[in-house]
Design brief:
Length: 189
């Protein structure tokens, strides 16, 4: 009897501890176990699961920098944005659509650490290229490209591509509410 109670003690302690699921840690542990056993397919799948979860968490951190809806407006976040990032070379992505009382919308998008950001970097970091593509405006000390009065975008610190699509004045008012330096460091980097 004493042995069975001693055997149950660790189980009881484990059940009494708060349960905190960490998908990333669990997937990485499973990948390590599978790799050690020579099961490379399972190891690769678990690493992909961990990477996807990290991307989702980064996307949430990025989205947290979008401003709340202005008075009389609504904001709808695009929750599955992170899932599509894998098809665009990984990284983080966030999107929110704001609508005013008249139904006019502005969509804010931010992409970080992926192939699309890298492809825009040479263009948006060259002032001559930006001047040929549209009008340059300054928001919170950062040069943004405004195209056709409907799209406003900037590359922040060669890391985050921030874009607003919608009537320029309303879009730029939303962009002006974002702490751009904090957005660049959205995940502690």
């Amino acid at each position: 009897m004493r042995r069975s109670l001693c055997a149950l003690l660790p189980l009881t302690m484990a059940l009494a501890a708060p349960v905190q699921a960490d998908t990333v840690a669990d997937a990485l542990a499973a990948a390590s176990t599978a790799y050690a056993a020579g099961d490379l397919n399972t190891a690769a799948a678990q690493i992909a699961t961990a990477a996807s979860e990290i991307s989702a968490r980064q996307s949430d951190l990025l989205r947290a920098h979008f401003p709340p809806a202005p008075e009389g407006w609504t904001r709808e976040d695009t929750p599955d944005m992170a899932q599509g990032m894998a098809m665009m070379g990984g990284g983080a992505g966030a999107e929110a659509t704001y609508a005013d009382a008249e139904g006019m919308t502005v969509t804010l998008s931010a992409y970080a650490d992926n192939m699309m950001v890298q492809s825009f970097a040479p263009i948006l970091s060259d002032p001559q290229m930006v001047a040929m593509m549209g009008k340059t405006i300054e928001i919170n000390g950062v040069a943004f490209l405004e195209q056709d009065g409907l799209t406003t975008m900037a590359l922040l610190d060669n890391r985050v591509l921030l874009q607003a699509v919608g009537e320029a004045a309303k879009a730029q008012a939303l962009l002006a509410q974002i702490d751009l330096a904090a957005m660049v460091a959205f995940d502690g980097q």
